[in-house]
Amino acid sequence: MLDVRRLRLLYEFAAQGSISATAVATGQTASAVSQQLAALEKEAGVALLERTARSAQLTDAGRRLVEHTALILEAIDAAETDLAAESAEPRGRVTVTAFPTVAVALAGPIVRRLRRHPELQMVLRQQHTVSESLARVRSGEIDLALIDDWSGQRRPATVGPLTFHHLVKDPLVAVLPARHRLASKEVLSAHELAGEPWIASPGGEPSRTALDRLWRAEGISVPVSEFEGLDTILTLVAKGLGVTVAPWMAAAERRDVAVRAVAEELPGRDVYVVHRTASTGRPAVMTVLQALHQAARKLMTAAERF
């Protein structure tokens, strides 16, 4: 009998195109992915992958099994939806993955909203990468994923088996120690902050890229201390060690820093919630999705001045 979890992995391999990319997308090692696919080949009794020293690709039998797997996953979703529709009251377990800054900002309001549904359980997992979260939604391991997008371009509503809902536009803001001499001002320019010690993400990170562009545009050169992780950066700012620029949602719940608008235009990030299109009829998933929309709207009314 074919193992559904291994079928999901084969399906993801077809989407990613390589074992290494599949490993990254699913949060496994390449060795583990290779072993699971080899086990699936034994179950199927035919070669599903054509392997070389440096790559692997689907055989004809592998491609046919991927086509069958797409139908199997759709059938599983349809079965879950059909059974869930038996009850008007949303019930069961809904697994959500999110990056930490959004999880912290939205978790409280969502939990409070979902208390009216005692038979519904939401499980929140930390997201490591967007590609991993999307892979886990596609495979059915995760029901909903909160992801961010720094491209500035709106994603289409549907991409393959996934549906994308735009949740909020999260602006970049200046973050200072709570008692900083500039904290009394509502709007700060890049030149006002140029003389301050800066703490920022390493080069290549989206918020750092936006900051570097701002400094180049304004002809500013400042020394920067680099740290990984927004929570670490904001904690250092709170301790008075410097200033930074961060997405508003990352600092919204903190009381130990001052959050101020930046006079110059800075691109923010778009936050989306993603689910399998086939899950649209599941009351539990749609209830959590609605709670996410409501919590985000309420939270972001405070960010309108930015």
Description:
Belongs to the LysR transcriptional regulatory family. GO terms for molecular function: DNA binding; DNA-binding transcription factor activity. Residues 2-59 form the HTH lysR-type domain. By secondary structure, this protein is α/β, with parallel strands linked by helices. The chain has three domains: 4-80, Arc Repressor Mutant, subunit A, CATH 1.10.10; 92-168 and 270-304, D-Maltodextrin-Binding Protein, domain 2 (3-Layer(aba) Sandwich), CATH 3.40.190; 172-262, D-Maltodextrin-Binding Protein, domain 2, CATH 3.40.190.10. Helices cover 44% and strands 23% of the residues. The strands form four sheets. A six-stranded mixed beta sheet has the order 4-3-5-14-7-6, with helices on both faces. The chain has a four-stranded mixed beta sheet with strand order 9-13-8-12. Strand 1 and strand 2 form a beta hairpin. The longest helix has 25 residues, at 60-84. The model has no long low-confidence stretch (mean pLDDT 86).
Task: Itemize the secondary structure elements and their pairings.
Blueprint: H1 4-16, H2 19-26, H3 30-44, E1 49-51, E2 56-58, H4 60-84, E3 92-98, H5 100-114, E4 120-126, H6 130-139, E5 144-149, E6 158-159, E7 162-170, E8 172-177, E9 187-188, H7 190-193, E10 198-200, H8 206-218, E11 224-226, H9 230-238, E12 244-247, H10 248-251, E13 257-262, E14 269-276, H11 283-300
Parallel strand pairs: 3-4, 3-5, 9-13, 10-11
Antiparallel strand pairs: 1-2, 5-14, 6-7, 7-14, 8-12, 8-13
Which key phrases capture this entry?
306 residues, 3 domains, four-stranded mixed sheet, WH-like_DNA-bd_sf, 14 strands, alpha/beta, D-Maltodextrin-Binding Protein, domain 2, single chain, LysR_HTH_N, DNA-binding, Arc Repressor Mutant, subunit A, six-stranded mixed sheet, transcription, globular, 23% strand, 44% helix
